[in-house]
Amino acid sequence: MAVLPVAPVARLIRMAGAKRVSEDASIELASILENYGIEIAKEAIDWANHAKRKTVRAEDIKEAAKRVRPLKPGE
């Protein structure tokens, strides 16, 4: 089930410079962003647990984003 709505993802693509965006392109980018976001969130949870906290903080997300490599399409 998709978490990110397609319309905002299409807006992101248009903000990047596209004049037109297919629904398939928006769906594919949403899927990639969701998978990447989940990997960052998992790493951030590890950071919070290591600090003996239950709450994931912004600094956990920032550190996790530095450590998680971007996913390649299809991963």
Automatic annotation (TrEMBL):
GO cellular component terms, A-Z: chromosome; cytoplasm
Sample GO molecular function, one term: DNA binding
InterPro entries assigned: Archaeal_histone_HMF (IPR050947), CBFA_NFYB_domain (IPR003958), Histone-fold (IPR009072), HmfB-like (IPR050004)
Domain Transcription factor CBF/NF-Y/archaeal histone, first and last residues per copy: 4-64
Keyword Ribonucleoprotein: no
Domain of life: Archaea
Major place of residence: cytoplasm
Keywords: Chromosome, Cytoplasm, DNA-binding
Membership in a protein family: Belongs to the archaeal histone HMF family.
NCBIfam families per record: archaea_histone (NF043032)
Designated name of the protein: Archaeal histone
